[in-house]
Amino acid sequence: MIGVGWVGLCTAACFAELGHEVYARDILADKVESLTRGEVPMHEPGLPELVERNAGRLTFTTDMGEVLERAELLFCCVDTPPTYSGDADLSRVEAVLGALGDSTHHAIVMKSTVPVGTGISIGRRREGLGYVANPEFLKEGTAVEDFMNPDRVVVGANDGSGAFADRVAALYEPLGAPIVRTDVASAEMIKLASNAFLATKISFINEIANVSEELGADVKEVARGMGLDERIGGKFLQAGIGYGGSCFPKDVSALKQLAGNSGYHFQLLTAVIEVNELQKRRTIGKLQKHLGPLVNREVALLGVAFKPDTDDVREAASLVLAARLQGEGANVRVYDPVAATNASEMLGGARICGSALEALDGAHAAVLVTEWPEFAELDWAGEVGARMATPVVVDGRNFLDRDALRAAGFAYEGIGR
Ligand code: UGA
Q1: Do 282 and 152 share a structural domain?
Q2: Where would you tag: which of 146, 203, 308, 370 has the fewest CB atoms within 10 A of its CB?
Q3: The domain containing residue 393 runs over which residues?
């Protein structure tokens, strides 16, 4: 594994669990040292146990020479963050290629999400180097489970790299999932199109939610009824305050940009992005409906992470909300079981609290941003109600028991209900 971030570490640990000897190389010496001591620097359920159990098969190193000597398949797992234009920044991928020298007996297996066409362009420049596209579909928070039980594995290769692709496919065979053998550009497109489609599903159901609020329907009921149609499917139909994370926002904009660069205006994705941005901001209107102007109002944000079971705050709705609320003059307090400290610099002047109750104490309103299970277990009718200055809740994930909260005297606002 070249690059031991979230993707590289999850993949390394899972391949080790399958019995392989894995070398994982990163340029950050501190990270390599702490991983060698068995310390996992991110919140991902099951991953620390996997790293510990497979310590004998996992070698963390900064030394590219050692990796090139020992391994034939080099999984490229470095970041490809968006640039200001929305294109993907491939400088880290280029650095990996540079570090390979002019090797001809290795294959790069591209796990990093790259623009469609990247593999072909690398192949042209690096004749003799094997190239296999092997996009990842892991979700943060369930990565280990997703790796071991994939819906499909995609392996893309062009002429000349077929033997390497056979070896990559063989690595995944024990998992028993369909293996999609295809060409490199199609493999790259499968990754971007899958994320863009899931984001489209979310923006679609969020618009249905917004219209349902006007027309008196309940989006949870609507999604349940729609999702049972196998052609639609029930997954990724949960309305909320918008999608975040390091993947959907980046990949939707990368695909839109990529289409634009080739002269095609991808109208649908333009709307998907716009709906998502507006969705994060609609919470402000819901708070104003109950509190009037938000100047000097105390607002508690429950959850900072872009979703539960991760400490990742990239593109999290909480960051936009905290900034917008402070822009309206509100005082913001936040609580997250694992992610708040990661975000402290991005939350403006928001007060970081050590517990949900501390955040709710004296608050004029609570906004549930991330559906951490502990928020459903709070004693809303008792202790929370008694501590809040006014009992107003905006449930940004339709996660709390609406009827119980209303019965306890809360002004409850969900999404699309
Ligand atoms: C996503 C994809 O689901 C993975 O398949 C992919 O490998 C990954 O991106 C990636 O490209 O690396 P991830 O970003 O970890 O995974 O998280 P998701 O579980 O997909 O959630 C993304 C966002 O959508 C979250 O903010 C979540 O709250 C939101 N969401 C999800 C909804 O608002 N509604 C839903 O029904 C589902």
Answers
A1: no
A2: 146
A3: 277-413
